[in-house]
Amino acid sequence: MALMHVDFFSDVLGMCVNMDVIIPQKTKGQIGMEGVGADKPYKTMYLLHGMSDDQTIWQRRTSIERYVSKLGIAVVMPTTHLAFYTDTTYGMAYWTFISQELPKICREFFPRMSTRREDTLAAGLSMGGYGAWKLGLGASETFGGAAALSGALDIVADYARHGKDKKLQLFKGIFGSAEELKGSDNDLFALAEKLKAEKKELPRLYAWCGTEDFLYEGNLRAWEHVKKLGYDLTREESTGDHQWKYWDARIQDVLRWWLGIETDLA
Predict the structure, then answer these.
(1) d(CA 15, CA 28)
(2) Strand, helix or coil at 99?
(3) H helix intervals, 43-96
(4) Does the pLDDT value for residue 27 go beyond 90?
(5) Are 256 and 263 in contact (CB under 8 A)?
(6) β-strand 233-238 against 204-210: which pairing, if any?
(7) How far is CA 6 from each of CA 79, 98, 200, rounded to the nearest angstrom?
(8) Helix (H) or strand (E) holding 48
(9) Which position among 21, 119, 174, 259 has the lowest Cβ density within 10 Å, counted as fewest Cβ atoms?
(10) Spatial distance between the Cα atoms of 89 and 83, rounded to a whole number of angstroms
(11) 135 secondary structure, DSSP code
């Protein structure tokens, strides 16, 4: 595999941003790892970070490069700062950036990335799990699948939970008022209903959350909602809370689910 650190300019955001990108490379001489190349357009996973992190975190906390080395896929890990993958009320268009501009830029920089929706997955943890499902539900023409690990899937409930703490101003700056958030395209429950009503092709969805995670109850509500709407949802739960030892293991499950394989990636 090749790991590239990319600094580039976003016209949508009006500033320089960063992403780490893993690209397939056929190798035989590396100790302890063999890289698989790609002889056709390769599938791409956009792997999103959580609230406290940036584009480097999946490299620092997991073995993602090793897991995908034998799969011949690309992984794009962008930074989107603390904006919940949303066009914020303070004028920063992070949703437009992540859903429209970034895929276009990546396919220009790396022309062997597949343009097929079924070859393009959004995945992430916590805030990034929210972003991943939002991409699947709000940009389904680009993303054919979405996977959330410990995702903030019930953002309306999360907003209410922060109604008396220091994060309230952050949420207001991103989403506006609680009344503006509920039922908008930033509300995944409403977004899932909207996409279903439009009778467009629905994304495949995956979710895992630990039963001790503070986001677990919100996950249960989101899972039930999309299942009732008829989405193809694979849901997993097990003992665990909100930490990397679980996400490191579960991102391997995401890859196996997406690619339809049973390969031991560890």
Answers:
(1) 39
(2) helix
(3) 57-61, 64-68, 94-96
(4) no
(5) yes
(6) parallel
(7) 11, 15, 34
(8) strand 44-48
(9) 259
(10) 10
(11) H
Q: Which helix (H) or strand (E) holds 174?
A: helix 168-175
Is the pLDDT score of 163 beyond 70? no
The pLDDT of residue 157 is above 80: yes
Q: Return the axis-axis angle of helices 188-198 and 127-138, rounded to nearest 10°.
A: 20
Cβ–Cβ < 8 Å for 171, 162: yes
* Strands 233-238 and 120-125, bridge-based pairing: unpaired
* Partners of residue 24 on adjacent β-strands: none
Give the angle 189-193-199 at the CA atoms, nearest 5°: 150
Task: For tokens 């997955």, name the residue.
Answer: 121
Paired tokens of 209: 């959350």
First vs last C-alpha separation in the chain:
16
Residue 117 is classified by DSSP as G
Q: How far is CA 255 from CA 29, 45, 145, 222, 249, in A?
A: 25, 9, 11, 22, 11
The per-residue pLDDT for 66 is 94
Question: Mean pLDDT over residues 28-37, rounded?
Answer: 78
Share of the chain above pLDDT 90, in %: 88
Lowest mean per-residue pLDDT among 84-88, 153-157, 169-173, 246-250: 169-173
Q: Is the pLDDT of residue 266 over 90?
A: no
Residue type, position 111, single letter: P
What's the Cα-to-Cα distance from 128 to each of 36, 80, 150, 176, 247, rounded to whole Å? 27, 10, 9, 20, 12
The whole-number pLDDT of residue 35 equals 80
Would you state the structure tokens that stand for residue 121, as one six-digit string?
Answer: 């997955």
